Amino acid sequence: MTEWAPEEGVRSDEALLVVRAGEGDEEAFEVLVRRHSPAMLQLATRFLGDRADAEDAVQDAFVSAWRKLPEFRRDASFHTWLHRIVTNRCLNRLRSRRPAADLDSVPEQAAPEHQASPARAVESRAAADALAAAMAGLSPEQRVCWVLREMQGLSYESIADTVGISLQAVRGRVFRARRYLTEAMSAWR
């Protein structure tokens, strides 16, 4: 089977896999899981800031998708549908996670080799810690909308569909999150 890509042949392949999986074909579902796991894990890690939590959320999402697949109406792509399930799992975890995660659990981005000086590494770590602390100050709803917009690059319409809220609510949450993060990160300008 080919990997997920926007080509038409792959889309029809994807649709066939979804139909077969919905009929109980475990092998077809395994192919869907392999195709979509990396993107869903990246999304969940950005929401939750912890790889283990993200893996649990993605696993829960795939279990839920397997159970609900016979009900999948195909009015959206499988990827979009799964994206919504993962987002909801992460949002539920964020809501139940008060207080916020320990800052040491936020994964550090690797610096490019040419910038890996000790001073640069310390500065990068401090900036990542400051951003993690600032993001912990967002409500779970604001954080989800901000991550989907700023880190995933989704349109406001896609975010509204994914989260299940109005377009106006998405715009408001992203605006408030940006304003809060700009204020919280002002020392890093």
TrEMBL record:
InterPro entries in alphabetical order: RNA_pol_sigma-70-like, RNA_pol_sigma-70_dom, RNA_pol_sigma70_r2, RNA_pol_sigma70_r4_t2, RNA_pol_sigma_r2, RNA_pol_sigma_r3/r4-like, WH-like_DNA-bd_sf
Keyword Transcription: yes
Top-level taxon in the UniProt lineage: Bacteria
Record-given protein name: Sigma-70 family RNA polymerase sigma factor
A Pfam family hit: Sigma70_r4_2
Gene3D superfamilies: 1.10.1740.10, Winged helix-like DNA-binding domain superfamily/Winged helix DNA-binding domain (1.10.10.10)
Keywords attached to this entry: DNA-binding, Sigma factor, Transcription, Transcription regulation
Family: Belongs to the sigma-70 factor family. ECF subfamily.
Protein's UniProt keywords contain Transcription: yes
Domain RNA polymerase sigma-70 region: 32-98
Species of origin: Streptomyces cyaneofuscatus
Domain RNA polymerase sigma factor 70 region 4 type: 129-180
